[in-house]
Amino acid sequence: MHRLLPRSVLLAAGAALSLAAFALGPGGTRAAAPAVVQQASPSAEVNAIKGDLDTVLAQGYEPFQVQVNVGTGGAPLIAISGTAIQSADGYNQWVFFFLGDTYLGTDTATPSFGLQIVGNAGPGAINVQYTAYGPNDPLCCPSLPPVVITYTWDGSELVPNGTPPGH
Description:
The chain is an alpha+beta fold. Helix content is 20%, strand content 35%. The chain contains two helices and eight strands, in the order ααββββββββ. The longest helix has 17 residues, at 42-58.
């Protein structure tokens, strides 16, 4: 039985493959090497993203967002948000972090009810926005404003600038 990937994963993979094709010159030959040798090549980045998506799926999570930022030492910092495949309500979400193809871990020790990756916060940093619930809020209707946490790779570990709501 074939498993269909969600549109967002297909779009991310398509964008990654387009990036790899862009790195090739006319006639499919490799363009001249860039002057900055520290950054990963587009094809290495595409391969890392593909492998990282497989890791998220192997953990039982369906990817729904991919964010790539320049990490330290040239390896890309990659964040992939996912919802548990077995989740009946879609509230079992994590962000999986990678440095290139090296798995760093998840954003929190336990899954969150709702989150989304909202962009880069400078080199080696990615912002994640979390849904915030009041003490009597049902899952459908959070009453508190969302909270943005910045995760920064400091060269040895991923450091959040705060604690996500509910953790």
